[in-house]
Design brief:
By secondary structure, this protein is mainly α. It has 17 helices and two strands. The longest helix is centred in the N-terminal third of the chain and has 32 residues, at about 20-50. Its main location: membrane.
Length: about 425
């Protein structure tokens, strides 16, 4: 359902009483909780069936390639088609595909099926993620966008804490395939919730840009990134950071299972508790940015993350590993929210979907290769060596941030900084 954008008149109810927002919030929370089941269950399923961390990394790499490929045109789809419909269709597709896995596993391990299902689901998920970011503008009043984003991201973080804990319990009791079945069911609930959401039409006074060919429309977002100095530098630095960390979850799971002798329940507990770092990062990022400015906050987060990544390989006990992983995820949260907020602040409205798509697909482009290399190296040389090298690389990314426009973003207000001016799309 799409309702017209509200004009001058009585104020809309608070977000706590806004039925459409509450429905959207709940549906996204359910979907995020289900995704966190797959986040743990899919690597465990491969590890149980093959015993190979390299095979885990290969699957992560293939899925990452599909996600990046979908990101190329995801922003164009989101800008040109109904966002709610795209998200509902995406939920239904993932319901069917993820639902096939536990059914197929009844006849025994079918690892080949994961290499079919996961890439398609990741591609669909990328389009849905871009749609979910842009849909908030059509869901709440402009002055409440920040509040709405805050509630949504806090919920995603909470789901990421609870999900792996529950997924570990389900996997230990019924097997990883059952945990993936829970993920499939979450998409059904999400689709039902989205069907009840009412999005408002875009502002009728806003100019609608003319349609172009899909490639030309995507390049409009890429051109914006290239012409904006800070975003251009961030995109390049994040591409290297993602290359170094994209396969880190697989390495962490392998480290817990292979080196520390942990069970599936232990893996779920480690990932769940470590994700509390994401919640902490979400709470810390605003005061840190106000006090230190964008550049210092982002560079500091990447630098501390590099130290934590190196520490993952040196952690000899599960509690220490959990704390170090939480520090890493806290820093990733701070850096990620910083870069997302900056992008929203300086990108013209009509380009936001395409810039988001171009930004994600570009800086994730090296992730699949990194995941394959990281997990292969962990199987051959051990998790400790791989984490030390990856951590050193992350520290070099932080040094790179000190040498360009990211550092100069400084502590001045965003609107007043020369390098943060919006540029023509």
């Amino acid at each position: 359902m799409v309702s017209p954008r509200r004009g001058p008149g009585p104020a809309r109810p608070s977000l706590g009483r806004d039925r459409s927002f509450l429905t959207y919030w709940i549906s996204q929370a359910v979907s995020a909780a289900g995704d966190s089941f797959a986040y743990l269950a899919v690597p465990l399923l491969v590890l149980h069936a093959t015993g190979s961390v390299a095979r885990m990394g290969l699957l992560t790499a293939v899925a990452g390639v599909a996600s990046v490929g979908a990101g190329v045109f995801g922003g164009v789809l989101v800008d040109r088609f109904d966002r709610r419909t795209l998200m509902i269709v995406g939920d239904l597709v993932r319901l069917v595909l993820y639902g096939l896995i536990p059914l197929a596993w009844l006849a025994g391990p079918q690892v080949w099926l994961l290499f079919v299902v996961l890439p398609v689901c990741e591609a669909v998920g990328m389009v849905c993620r871009v749609a979910s970011v842009t849909a908030v503008r059509n869901l709440v009043d402009r002055e409440r966008i920040t509040e709405a984003n805050g509630r949504l991201h806090a919920t995603y973080a909470a789901a990421a804490v609870v999900g792996p804990l529950l997924a570990g319990l389900v996997s230990a009791r019924f097997g990883p395939a059952a945990a993936i079945g829970v993920n499939a069911g979450s998409f059904a609930l999400s689709a039902v919730g989205l069907r009840l959401v009412r999005l408002r039409r875009p502002d009728p006074d806003a100019a609608t840009p003319p349609r172009e060919r899909p490639l030309a429309e995507f390049l409009a977002g890429a051109r914006f990134l290239w012409r904006q100095p800070v975003l251009r530098s961030l995109t390049a630095l994040l591409a290297v950071f993602i290359f170094l960390t994209f396969g880190l979850t697989d390495v962490l799971i392998y480290h817990v299972k292979h080196d520390l002798g942990g069970s599936d329940r232990t893996v779920g507990t480690v990932l769940g508790l470590a994700t509390l770092g994401t919640v902490a990062g979400a709470l810390l990022v605003a005061p840190l940015r106000r006090r230190l400015g964008f550049g210092a906050t982002w560079i500091g987060a990447v630098g501390v993350s590099g130290v934590a990544v190196a520490g993952l390989g040196l952690a000899g006990t599960v509690p220490i590993l959990t704390v170090v992983a939480a520090v890493h995820l806290c820093c990733v949260s701070v850096g990620g929210i910083c870069s997302m907020s900056l992008r929203q602040e300086i990108t013209p409205d009509h380009l936001l979907g395409r810039v988001t798509s171009a930004f994600w697909s570009t800086h994730f482009s090296l992730g699949p290769a990194g995941a394959a290399l990281l997990t292969w190296a962990a199987g051959r040389y051990g998790a400790a060596s791989v984490c030390l090298v990856a951590g050193a690389g992350c520290l070099l990314v932080a040094v790179g941030g000190c040498c360009g426009p990211v550092r100069r973003a400084g502590s001045a207000p965003v609107a007043g900084e020369r390098d943060l001016r919006p540029v023509p799309g």
